[in-house]
Design brief:
about 80 residues; alpha+beta; OB fold (Dihydrolipoamide Acetyltransferase, E2P); about 20% helix; TIF_eIF-1A_CS; protein biosynthesis
Length: about 80
């Protein structure tokens, strides 16, 4: 599910507003921690947890050209 990073919390945690309208506290996966820098305003893919819907994992960060393509195609209406 797509979302926009609202704020950085530290300890590889971020607050993300998802396209379904839910604000989730997400953690950045260990695979992404050192390789991909996530900042406020970035568009990311979030996988919600099965147990707690208000939490999730960030699995991908989109680059600038990818975000503009998503906006043109209509995928980022509410994010």
């Amino acid at each position: 599910m797509l979302g926009t990073v609202i704020s950085m919390l530290g300890a590889s945690r971020v607050v993300v507003r998802c396209i379904d309208g839910v604000t989730r506290m997400c953690r950045i996966r260990g695979k992404m921690k050192k390789r991909v820098w996530v900042r406020e305003g970035d568009v990311v893919i979030v996988v919600p947890w099965e147990i707690q819907d208000e939490k999730g994992d960030v699995v991908w960060r989109y680059t600038g050209p990818q975000v503009s393509w998503l906006e043109r195609k209509g995928f980022l209406k509410n994010a």
